[in-house]
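ok new one. same drill as before - structure tokens go in, u give me an amino acid for every spot. 845 of them this time. try not to just spam alanines like last time pls lmao
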């Protein structure tokens, strides 16, 4: 329908009235029904996703009635104009009164909801988060508490959503509000129910379909009258809801044609997803306290209580029968709080002296050059690894790697300690290596003279062979060929021997270092217990004695608590706490060996336990994450030794006594049921369970003992003691909200600048005019009086709207100058809270 412009008296010439939009306003009841349905749909989709993702036991009928009632009330509140502040105040008082009346139930529901979210995060990521201590209650009382809490939260959400859609017409705000609740579970791939996701998608589709009268560009402002303008809530009609039927049909059709069970991500998408979910190489502080997932450092100060979910981390296929260590990280420097890599200057020196040799394949090089291929106990095997749930930037490799012609470009050696993925963004999901096992001699002396070249020299030049009569084992371990012997060797063997000797000197100078204040304490401990090198014939005997002493004084538990801030990790564990798991024992043994002058390192990764004899893929769960000590022997290089109680000390065979893991065809077989709970009593000295699939009939299998720092009987509630993470997370909420407001302001300002800079200066002028009308509207609302456009500017607007001639740059600049004056006026004169509201919520300037 069109309107005729008002015609003035003939004597005054033709005059044009203010432009009006030619869309008739919908009846109030039609608007009311439309926004009631839209608010209810948005609430049902948003909270449906949140509630089903975390499986909250709530009364769905009660929440549905609450959502419907809230949609009705808030639609009426925002659509009616008379006495709106009074009704708003009355509603706020009613809400506060109900909250005071149901305070205990609402607060208890809040705490349990936070615990449920934390528990779900721990199940997915293994983060060392702690839950809030709350009392247990009956299922009915818990359902009531959840329902009451979510009813109050739902009403706040509807208030904000109604204000965004009806009052502000902001599509972006509605997207952010609903998307925030979806992001809470989806950020860690916790999936809501498909029906809830469909409702939310339908709501988002509605926002896009109804954008012309929910928000968007306001061409010419018209405040009252029979006609409404684009971007006004008064244009909403209940008949337009028929579009939702088509959108719902399309969603159902797509779900039927492309069912979830048949969807498969491409390899590229899967790699990107894995990289994003596992994060980049953050310290272990952000990755939880379970070992095996760091490529930079291990923060011991956050090694608190541990828990396992049974999630499959690796799948391996190996031809080796028996256990194996898969190393993902080795710590070189101990500072009392963490294990870190070598300093840059030491790493540079190491790279220079190695002259291209790779320490990661040192045992293989020793065997290749000196061992021949007839040594007793020698065997080669292949190992294939699929990284299912661990950090994809970690590469988990066995000891005894065979040297290849060139390093694999997918691998990147980190100093002489370990190997990580060459792609630092997406990591490496699958790889295969060749390795060996052998009964290697302990010293280079034994290795050399048992070799083919050494035996030949023993016969041809016996005068050059040192007399070992009365020589102690420690002296033989430091022996290397003299210059006359090197001249008789082949060039490859001679060069390797010299490089190996330089590396051994480097190892003794770097991997025996300790904090200055800790060294005398540990040295006294070794002297008191007779654990000095001069009391033993070999390094292995000394290492065995140290391990036995530590295990006799300290007990194994998964709930040792965190060390006090500022305390040395080893000193606190060894002399005060005396309770811990593999990280504590491996760190302590490593540091004690260093105090005795023996090179040692801390290592962590995963263990393939013994007990399976058939070929095929085997699932390695998170409970097989482990830490151990690396001992340096000149005859074998770095070898793993087991420091944790309940494990079998086997220097070269690497066979810890862990529970057997049966081969399984798929990783799904290793996942535990969600109903499993921790055992109320488990011996403190037992090793961590390595069972890939807990027996459903025995829910206590693989569980841990509730320690003094546990907060709930459930195993999933014992998620460590990193309360700092929870505290930081709570503090980050205002920051995230401000960041979202800041980003949406930037986006809306960018869109406005783009529209006001169109090459069509007439259209640009009309966009500026719409913004000016909005500035005047809120200026008169928040201030006493704001003047409108002058007659000259009104004429320019009429020219832009109706004339065939284009405005000049100067004329458009005049309108822009007035717009800028209004923005500056509001920014200067508004009360600071109102100024922030207009700046970041309304985005007036």
């Amino acid at each position: 329908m069109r309107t005729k412009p008002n015609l003035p008296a003939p004597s005054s010439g033709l005059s044009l009235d203010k432009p009006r939009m030619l869309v008739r306003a919908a009846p109030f009841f039609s608007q009311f029904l439309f926004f009631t349905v839209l608010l209810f749909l948005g609430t049902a989709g948003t909270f449906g996703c949140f509630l089903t993702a975390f499986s909250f036991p709530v009364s769905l009928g009660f929440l549905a009635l609450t959502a419907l009632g809230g949609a009705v009330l808030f639609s009426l509140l925002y659509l009616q104009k008379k006495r709106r502040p009074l009704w708003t105040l009355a509603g706020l008082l009613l809400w506060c009164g109900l909250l005071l009346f149901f305070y205990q139930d609402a607060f208890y529901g809040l705490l349990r909801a936070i615990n449920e979210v934390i528990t779900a995060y721990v199940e997915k990521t293994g983060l060392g988060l702690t839950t809030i201590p709350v009392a247990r209650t009956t299922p009915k009382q818990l359902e009531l508490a959840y329902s009451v809490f979510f009813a109050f939260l739902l009403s706040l959400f509807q208030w904000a959503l109604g204000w965004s859609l009806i009052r502000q017409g902001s599509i972006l705000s509605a997207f952010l509000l609903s998307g925030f609740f979806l992001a809470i579970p989806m950020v860690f791939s916790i999936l809501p129910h498909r029906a809830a996701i469909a409702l939310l998608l339908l709501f988002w589709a509605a926002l896009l379909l109804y954008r012309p009268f929910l928000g968007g560009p306001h061409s010419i402002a018209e405040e009252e009258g029979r006609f409404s303008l684009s971007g006004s809530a008064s244009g909403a009609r209940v008949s337009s809801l028929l579009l939702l039927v088509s959108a719902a049909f399309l969603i159902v059709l797509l779900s039927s044609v492309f069912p979830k069970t048949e969807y498969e991500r491409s390899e590229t998408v899967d790699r990107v997803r894995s990289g994003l979910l596992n994060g980049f190489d953050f310290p272990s502080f952000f990755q939880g306290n379970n070992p095996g997932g760091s490529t930079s450092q291990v923060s011991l100060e956050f090694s608190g209580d541990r828990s396992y979910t049974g999630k499959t981390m690796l799948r391996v296929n190996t031809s080796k029968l028996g256990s194996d260590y898969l190393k993902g990280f080795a710590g070189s420097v101990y500072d009392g709080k963490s294990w870190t890599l070598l300093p840059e200057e030491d790493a540079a020196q190491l790279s220079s002296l190695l002259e291209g040799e790779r320490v990661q394949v040192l045992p293989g090089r020793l065997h290749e050059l000196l061992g021949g291929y007839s040594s007793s106990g020698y065997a080669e095997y292949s190992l294939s690894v699929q990284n299912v749930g661990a950090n994809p930037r970690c590469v988990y490799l066995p000891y005894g790697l065979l040297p290849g012609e060139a390093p694999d470009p997918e691998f990147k050696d980190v100093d002489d300690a370990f190997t990580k993925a060459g792609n630092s963004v997406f990591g490496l999901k699958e790889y295969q290596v060749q390795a060996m096992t052998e009964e290697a001699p302990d010293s280079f002396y034994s290795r050399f003279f048992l070799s083919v070249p050494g035996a030949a020299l023993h016969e041809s030049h016996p005068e050059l062979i040192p007399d070992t009569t009365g020589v102690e084992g420690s002296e033989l371990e430091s022996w290397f060929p003299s210059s006359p012997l090197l001249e008789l060797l082949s060039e490859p063997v001679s060069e390797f021997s010299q490089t190996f000797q330089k590396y051994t000197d480097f190892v003794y100078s770097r991997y025996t270092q300790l904090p200055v204040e800790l060294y005398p304490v540990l040295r006294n401990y070794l002297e008191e217990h007779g654990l000095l090198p001069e009391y033993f014939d070999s390094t292995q005997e000394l290492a065995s004695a140290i391990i036995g002493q530590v295990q006799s004084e300290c007990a194994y538990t998964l709930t040792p608590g965190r060390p006090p801030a500022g305390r040395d990790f080893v000193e606190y564990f060894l002399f005060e706490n005396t309770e811990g798991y593999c990280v504590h024992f491996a760190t302590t043994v490593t540091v004690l060996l260093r105090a005795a002058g023996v090179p040692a390192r801390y290592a962590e990764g995963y263990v393939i336990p013994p007990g399976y004899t058939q070929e095929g893929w085997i699932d390695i769960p998170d409970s097989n994450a482990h830490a151990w000590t690396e001992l340096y022997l000149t005859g074998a290089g770095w070898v793993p030794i087991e420091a944790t109680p309940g494990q079998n000390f086997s220097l070269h065979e690497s066979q810890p006594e862990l529970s057997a893991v049966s081969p399984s065809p798929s990783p799904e077989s290793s996942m535990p049921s969600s109903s499993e709970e921790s055992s109320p009593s488990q011996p403190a000295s037992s090793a961590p369970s390595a069972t890939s699939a807990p027996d459903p009939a025995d829910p206590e299998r693989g569980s841990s003992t509730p320690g003094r720092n546990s907060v709930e009987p459930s195993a999933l509630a014992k998620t460590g003691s990193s309360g700092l993470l929870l505290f930081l997370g709570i503090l980050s909420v205002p920051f995230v909200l401000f960041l979202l407001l800041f980003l949406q302001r930037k986006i809306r300002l960018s869109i406005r600048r783009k529209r006001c800079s169109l090459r069509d200066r007439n259209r640009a002028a009309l966009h500026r005019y719409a913004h000016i009308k909005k500035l005047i509207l809120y200026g008169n609302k928040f201030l006493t009086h704001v003047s409108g456009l002058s007659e000259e500017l009104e004429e320019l607007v009429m020219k832009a709207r109706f004339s065939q001639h284009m405005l000049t740059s100067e004329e458009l600049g005049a309108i822009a100058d007035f717009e800028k004056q209004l923005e500056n006026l509001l920014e200067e004169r508004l009360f600071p809270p109102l100024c922030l509201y207009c700046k970041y919520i309304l985005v007036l300037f």
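Confidence is low (pLDDT under 50) at residues 1-23, 215-235, 275-289, 649-724. and btw The longest strand covers residues 379-387.
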